[in-house]
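Worked example 4.2. Below are the chains of a multi-component assembly; read each line carefully before continuing.
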Amino acid sequence: MTDPHQLDELLRAQEGDAGCDAGVPIMDQYVEIELRGEDPSERFPGTTIHLRVCPGCRADHDGVLEAARRFADLDPE
Amino acid sequence: VSTAPRRTRRPTDQSGATARRADGSSSWIPTIRVTSTPPPSSTTSCKRAATHELHRRRRQLKALSGPELDDVAQQCADDAMMKILARIDDFEGLSRFTTWAYKFVIFEVSSKVARHAWQHHPPSAEEPTWERLPDTLTPKPGDQAERREQLAALVKAVEEDLTPRQREVFVAIALNDVSIDVLALQLDSNRNAIYKNLFDARRKLRASLAAAGRPLSDEEAHA
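Applying the procedure described above to all two chains together yields the following structure tokens:
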């Protein structure tokens, strides 16, 4: 059977989506909110919506989150 | 000398609230600001982050071997460091400095991986057709008539209601799984512009389905 949810996902276009460019200047702040265990959607609701549907921005977000998590303590001066 | 209070920028977020500043800082900053030269440890950290990110995205880098991957990591770290140096005065302390700096590294890796994928596996020049619909969307014998009609309405809407650009972007990304960044390079555009095309196409298709009596949600059915 064709999955009805698949079509809904394929055509997902949610109101309030901030787009790709809006996430660029705030991505560092966004992931740090997550690393503190808080919810970034309160401060950046448009980017939260966007990250659910844009694989390119999602990959960048995941990369920044992982780098911040793994290498933040490697500031060796 | 003016005694007027110095005006400072009050950074806000997408909710309109004032952002709070991060307590953490970095010993990279004074070194870079005073000497305009990154400390060796900072370039090492950037390369480490770039290498890790390249490995995380290695599915898109099949043609690269170990030494080549190392060269790309070095290029990403060097290019990111140039941007960090150029933008150092923009750092407002709203995140830890390392997180702010790694952001440039990740964006650099993202950009180079997309360019590599585009050069080695450009999107097919062939016009994508509906025969190449993902299996999950192809009507199956067991599908109800209503479902088949909804898919038929979608095909009609893609062909008749989208602009040529919206159709090109929607078919490539949504139906043929082309990366948004690869398509942006192919069309000499950028990620944000392509995403806007895709977003507008999706909205238009949802509206077309609702207008054809085949809405995707209860909300659209009653709009």
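Take a moment to check your reading of the output against the notes. Residues 97-120 of chain B form the longest helix (24 residues). Chain B has nine helices and no strands.
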